[in-house]
Amino acid sequence: MLQLATTDKEKLRQEALVKENQYPEALIHAVESSQASKIAGQNTPHSGLYIPDAGWVSPVRLCNYLLQHPDIHCRFNTRVDKISRTGDNWHLYDNNDQLIASSAIVVVAGASETKRFEQLSHLPVKPIRGQVSLKQATSEAPVLNTVICGEGYISPPLDNQWCFGASFDVKTPSDEIRAEDHQSNFKNFRMYYRNWQNTSRLKRRVPLVA
After folding, report:
1. Which member of 68, 91, 154, 179 has the lowest number of beta carbons within 10 Å of its beta carbon?
2. Same structural domain, 152 and 189
């Protein structure tokens, strides 16, 4: 993965990180723009940090893989509205106060929805809207060897689709897919990666999904 220094502020932050020398060079090290271009397979005017062992993953594929574990049992379309503890067990209830399940350990992985539960309402979490965009890759599209991060990010195509973004909106908690966010993602992509070969072949249009 390449973390590009696309702004003066980011460049100073990266230089300070390297100067502190808290991480082995094999884990993360600075690269000049020429090195970054060679690693990425595309020209970039920016220096950056290279993390050779970092990568990217399809969230859907990862989740489906993890769910194949024999000790995991799924309960879909089931909303937990309350959790309570009695003795050594936690109990999960729906909105009709009907018991869903009981367990000695409960892991709440609900992002900003975590605060719905009384026991966790004190946590300083809030929703931040982030929409990514997918665009069909073609044989004429740019070649990319690794994930590029800067003002947003883009990863090499998976299943013939580019994934790039993401929007960052702290004022709009909506989770609907918005065309204006797609356009913003595309604009940022063209702005920061305009030196890439064949980016002109990525037409300006609303991508497939987000």
Report:
1. 68
2. yes
